[in-house]
Structure formats: structure tokens, C-alpha cells
Amino acid sequence: MAGSMGKPAIVVEGLERSFGDVLAVQGIDLRVDEGEIYGFLGPNGAGKTTTVRMLTTLLLPTGGHAGVAGFDVVSEARQVRASIGVALQEAALDPLMTGRELIRLQATLQGLPSGAGRKRADELLERVDLAGAADRRVGGYSGGMKRRLDLAAALVHEPRVLFLDEPTTGLDPVSRKTIWEEVQALNDDGTTVFLTTQYLEEADQLADNVGIIDRGRIVAEGTPEELKGEVGNPHIELLVADGAVPVAERTVSQLGKLRPRKGEGRVLLEVEQGAADIPRVVRALDEAGIGVESLELVRPTLDDVFVEKTGHHLEGEGGGEGVKGADEPEAEAAPA
Fold this sequence. Notes:
Layout: E1 8-19, E2 22-33, E3 37-41, H1 48-55, E4 63-68, E5 71-72, H2 77-83, E6 84-87, H3 99-109, H4 114-127, H5 143-154, E7 161-165, H6 173-188, E8 192-197, H7 200-206, E9 209-214, E10 217-222, H8 224-231, E11 235-240, H9 245-252, E12 257-258, E13 266-270, H10 278-287, E14 292-298, H11 302-310
Parallel strand pairs: 3-8, 3-9, 6-7, 7-8
Antiparallel strand pairs: 1-2, 1-4, 4-5, 9-10, 11-13, 11-14, 12-13
């Protein structure tokens, strides 16, 4: 990954956005350096889309300020828009246009001369593996193809900073992996990427740094490894006969730190050395006459970080941020 402590591509200080009495984004601070992939992780309704809409000049902040590519998102909105590419959750793609027509139109809107626009469209369609479908109508594209086309459209003017708002939500694993590979390739070429996601694996795989947002506040920030390291050591998850759990817990409690129970018959023991601790745990249980039905060594995940910081799991969490990003008033955009 290309991240480095250099010039900031995005600087956010005390950024807020309220909708009536609902404070959807509550005074967040963050910094993304040039050439970095920044993963903005949180459940639906946490404030991710609202933040992206402010950073991309689609929504005015109600407090604080933000700069993108060296320009203020309110007073220099035009310069921000010229410097960024944006692929939002719901791609606004005309179903009656072909993929090639759509990318050429985007090139025209970005001010590229017609010859250069045609050449750029062909390059990008090839890049996102849509050259074979370029002359088909977009209405017949699959979800993954539409996401790749939207990504190509966001790249027409070779933006310095690329915003991707949940680019793989709802996609199958193969399509998701294709998008990941393209994001990584863009970053390897020097593009700064601000990626919002609710997928733990996506943030873990792609991001140099991660900010975790919950209910409009950033609750943790750092590299994925740093964040997982803060949570603690790996733990051994044992499955024993139901009635044996209390005895099993007493038996292994001297070998590590017991964690709260999680389901029937399960014993969770945090250990310092990981796999090296397994033999002595098994031996102690064997000597106590307790049979182990299964054993798994579980390393900390970003979900563990989320639970530690918020008290609830990330995956499977619903909820809303009062007013979701897609429903925000369009008239609030920053001046051109």
C-alpha cells in the first residue's frame, strides 16, 4: 500500500452535520495523507455517507471545516470537485446509454477534447474489464458491472483523491474481489482513496488506516493491526459438554484470562502466546477429565475493536442516523 506520512490529501476538523434536531455527524476530526487508502468503517446509519457528501461538496457542513486536495470544501468547492472522483452507493447511470457513451459523456463534462475523451473512455473501459460490454446498454449490466462502470466514470479526469462510498455493498464475492483489486491498483498508481465500508474484511484487506465511526462520532482510529493489537491477545474458544463449563472454566482460569461466555458449552480463554498455549490448555482439561469437542484459536478482529469501543457488534447492526445520506436535501450543496 502506498500510504506515507506526507502532505495531507484530506483534513477534517470538528466537522458536524445536523438535520433538524438530529446531529448525524458530531464534530469529527481526521487526516488522510496523499497516497493512502483510508477505510471509514461503521454500520448503516453511523454517519459515513453524510461525511462523504460533505467532503465531496454535495452537502454543506453545519459546523467545523474540511479541506480536500488542499481546498476548502465550502469556499473552494469548484476546485475540490475538479480534484476528486466520486462513486456513491447508488450509481446514477442512465440505463438507456451504453457504457462507452456514458464514459464519453463524462469526459465531455470534464472538459476533455473529443479525441482525448474517446481515447480515455476506451482506456478506462479496458481497465475495469468492460471493453467487451462497452456497446451494450447499461440497463442490462449486472450490479458488479455497474459498480465498475461508475468507478471508470469517476476516474475520467484522473482525480488526485477518489471517494468510494460502500463500493461493494450487495455484490457477490467474485465482483467484490474485482473491485478490491482495482482499488489497490489505483492506489499503487498514487491515487488517494477514501473508502467507506461496513465490511470488516474490506477495511482489513485494503486500508492503510481505519477510522471507525458510530452514531456520528469517530470511536477509534489507526492501522488495522494497531487497532486489533489494542483489543488484546488471541483467545482459545473451546466447546465442551454443557454441564462441564463451570469446571472447565475453573481448570483453565490459571492459564489465561477468561472472557465472557458466548453460547452454550463454550469456554473462551485469552492467552498471551496464542498457538503455543494450546497444548497446556488441552492437557489441563484432559487431566481434569473434561472432553473437548472442538478447539479454535481466534485472533482479534476489527469487530472486536468495534465491540470494545461501542459495546455492540458491527456486522448485522441496522439502525439509522436519523436522516440517511440518500435522503439529504440536494439544495444544501456548497456553492460552485
